[in-house]
C-alpha cells in the first residue's frame, strides 16, 4: 500500500530513521530512569517502584516492538520485497513474529495505563490524606499491585486470540506494526467486535478515572495553597497538609496523564473506526507511532518536573 510514509524512497528512509532514533530515545531515556530509581535510596518508595514498572514497560516497546518494524522495513528497502511472514496473518503459519510482538505492545500499553492510574491513586492519598499515606501506601502493597497489573494487562492483551478464533495478528502494511486483525472471516462477527472494543473501553475507563482523581487532587492542592497563604505569617503549622514534594509529585503525575491520554486517544479512535469498517490507512500509521513515541516521554517529564530526578540523572 502506498501510504503517506512510504510512497517514495525518501519517505521510506525518513521513516526508518525515525524508527531507529525512537529506539535509541526509548532505551536511553528509560535506562536512565531505571538507573536513577533503582540506584538512589531516595527513590526506593512506592512511587519509585511504580515509575520503575512504567520504565520497564516502555523499554519492552523499544527492545521488541519497534525493532521488528525496522527489520521489516529495511528488508523491504534492500530486497524490494517484504519478508514472507508479513504476507500472512498468525492463523496462516505455524509461527508468526506478531504472535509475540503484538501482545507485548498491547500488554505494555495496558501496563502503562494501569501504572499511571496507580500513581494517581498513590499521589491522591498523599495529597488528600497525608497522615495516612505511610500506613496505606506501603512498598509491599505496591509490589503486589504492580505484579497484578502486569498479569492482568497481558491477560487482556492475549484475550482476543483466547476467546475468539476469528481474531488473528498480522504485520499491518498501513501502521507498519503488528496489529490485531480478522483471521479467515471477511467481516466482523459480533463476538470479535465486542472483544476488540474491550481495549478502548478498558483504557478510557482507567484514563477517565485517572483524570477525575487528578482533578480532585489538584483542587485540593489549590485549597491548600490558599490556606498556606493565610497561615504564612502565623507560627501555627498544620501537620495535616501535604508536603511540597507530594504536591510537586501530584502535578507531575497529572502531566503524565495528559501526555498519555493525548498519545492514546488516536489509537482508540482508530480501533472504534476499524471495528465499524473504516480502513483509515494513513491515520493508523500516525496513531500507532504517536502511541509508540509515548515510551520516551516519561523521562522528559520527570527531568522537567522533578528537580531531584534531574540532579541524579546528571
UniProtKB/TrEMBL annotation:
Matching entries from InterPro entries are given as: GPCR_Rhodpsn, GPCR_Rhodpsn_7TM, TAAR
Sorted alphabetically, which Pfam families does this protein's record hold? Answer: 7tm_1
Q: How does it sit in the membrane?
A: Multi-pass membrane protein
GO CC annotation:
plasma membrane
Q: Give TM segment ranges.
A: 13-37, 49-72, 100-121, 142-163, 195-218, 253-277, 283-304
Q: Give the family from UniProt.
A: Belongs to the G-protein coupled receptor 1 family.
- Give the G-protein coupled receptors family 1 profile domain ranges: 29-302
As for subcellular location, the record says: Cell membrane
What is this protein's record name? Answer: Olfactory receptor 4D9-like
GO terms (molecular function) for this protein are:
trace-amine receptor activity
Please verify whether the record's keywords include Repeat: no
Keywords for this protein: Cell membrane, G-protein coupled receptor, Membrane, Receptor, Transducer, Transmembrane, Transmembrane helix
Q: Which organism is it from?
A: Seriola lalandi dorsalis
Entry superkingdom: Eukaryota
- Keyword Ligase: yes or no? no
